[in-house]
Amino acid sequence: MATVSEEVRAYTVRLELVDEPGELLRALEPIADNGGNLLSIFHERGNVTPRGHIPVEVDLEATPERFETIVDALREAGVNVIRAGADRYGEELAVVLVGHLVDTDLSDTLSRVEDCGGTTITDVSLNGPEGTGEESAARLRLLASADSRDRALETVRSIAEEKDLRVIEPLAGGGEA
Amino acid sequence: MRLAVLGAGAVGESVAELAGEYGHTVTAFADSSGAVVDADGVDVAAALDRKAESGSVGGESTDAALEAAYDVLVEATPTTLGDAEPGFSHVRAALDRDRHVVLANKGPVAERYGEVRELERSSAGSVRFEATVGGAIPALATIEDLGPERVTAVRGILNGTANFVLTRMAAEGLGYEHVLAEAQDLGVAEADPSFDVQGTDAALKCVILANVLSGGGHSLADADVEGIEDIPGAALDLAAEDGRTVRLVGEVDADGVRVGPRLIPEHGTLAVTGTMNIVQLETEHAGRLNVSGRGAGGPETASAVLSDVGRLPPLE
């Protein structure tokens, strides 16, 4: 028998749901029906994707084989799976910016990233000392169409160079390690 | 095989000490200030005792070691950039004499790969350099087995010091300077850690990988290199909130060589901890291969040197 790992692992599935009653339950059923153990559900009701869908993050535990079945079942049920475990099906990418983010006009930085086309900033998290004058860090989550990923990163790099910020990028090619 | 070992730092010393166990004889052993030569076999323990007492393994010159009777020159002198001297001249001297060369010194194959290969073509000797990439990890042997033309990209965590600093910062929530000082106390980081934390060491290894994959043409000057100096703890906290962490990652592909801090999944394969290294190969037919292990250390790196010696064909 092939030694396939039976180890239960934690996975994050990012889904996009249509804003209709019963949609969330419909999305969760394939997980429970296929032996996944639900850990948490983060339902961003106030947040809407560029396509008007509601993003939901589901943390669950399953063996790797069961997880594959769950993702397939979600797809069959017509649920839009953006990211499953380490495999991304959309082009969501995260970058961390470090430097004088506030002094260099963070909102200008963000709007210029969005203006490069094909890219939406889905989340911004700022961490650093209060007020201006100090270095801080910000994590940006970007949702880019498949062909705009490189352009989005290139835009972030050029803004960072201009504003003397450091960029901690994801891996090239988008392949998760 | 008869070995001439140049360099008596951690790696050279371990090679000399372990050579006998692997069935080889050390016929010359040199450090930066002297050498000992004996065609019947150098007494390595006695040479190291002399080094501890007087600062040198022996009273002869480096040239005497280069001119000694040997089959394989083990070049384990410190890595130098630019012209990669004196390592490059040592390589040339051995190949001109139709002897083999095994490098632990990264300089010649990172900075002057094409010239090294050209010298090798007109020599009966061969050049191997497994120990230059990832210490004990058989990265180059794996690529050789697969065929370099079937390896499409390589990624790796190739500097233990930088990885240690980032791992500790993320795990303990400590600042860069604090963790670096701790690493220096533990002997994980050198008094002058710039070679490691500025990404130079990782970049040299990636340049060597790029040279192997593409048959040459790369040097440190073409690599896009960024270090981990002064990355704030806040950046690692933000990464962790998102299930990621920051590591100094080297990437080699058709676009060239890039080294810098990257966001990677916190529990992913690449996120090795402490001083561990990992090399990840993307292959045409075999999917992704990961090889991890100790990327530094005397006996660990010496084992890669001695594996190379074992792969060499007999001369004459």
Q: What brief labels describe this structure?
A:
heterodimer; A: 177 residues; alpha+beta; Alpha-Beta Plaits; 2 domains; 5-stranded antiparallel beta sheet; 9 strands; 28% helix; B: 316 residues; alpha/beta; Rossmann fold; 6-stranded mixed beta sheet; 13 helices; 39% helix
Report a brief summary of the structure.
The complex is a heterodimer of chains A (177) and B (316). Chain A is an alpha+beta fold and 177 residues long.
Describe this structure as you would to a colleague.
Chain A has 177 residues and is α+β, with helices and mostly antiparallel strands. Chain A folds into two domains: 9-88, ACT domain (Alpha-Beta Plaits, 2-Layer Sandwich); 91-170, Alpha-Beta Plaits (2-Layer Sandwich), CATH 3.30.70.260. Chain A contains four helices and nine strands, in the order βαββαβββαββαβ. Chain A has helices spanning 23-33, 64-76, 106-115, 149-163, and strands spanning 9-17, 37-43, 54-62, 80-84, 87-88, 91-99, 119-127, 136-144, 166-170. Chain A has a five-stranded antiparallel β-sheet. In chain A, a hairpin with a 2-residue loop joins strand 4 (80-84) and strand 5. In chain A, helix 1 packs antiparallel against helix 2 (64-76) and helix 3 packs antiparallel against helix 4. With 316 residues, chain B is α/β, with parallel strands linked by helices. Chain B has two domains: 2-134 and 298-311, NAD(P)-binding Rossmann-like Domain (Rossmann fold, 3-Layer(aba) Sandwich), CATH 3.40.50.720; 140-294, Dihydrodipicolinate Reductase, domain 2. Helix content of chain B is 39%, strand content 22%. In chain B, strands 3-2-1-4-5-6 form a six-stranded mixed β-sheet, sandwiched between helices. In chain B, strands 8-10-9-7-11-12 form a six-stranded mixed β-sheet. In chain B, strand 2 and strand 3 (35-37) form a beta hairpin. In chain B, helix 1 packs across helix 13. Chain B is globular. The A-B interface holds A 12, 86, 94-96, 98, 125, 127-128, 135-139, 141, 166, 168-173, 175-177 and B 153, 155, 226, 231-232, 234-235, 237-239, 241-244, 246, 249, 251, 253, 255, 258, 260-265, 268-271, 280, 282.
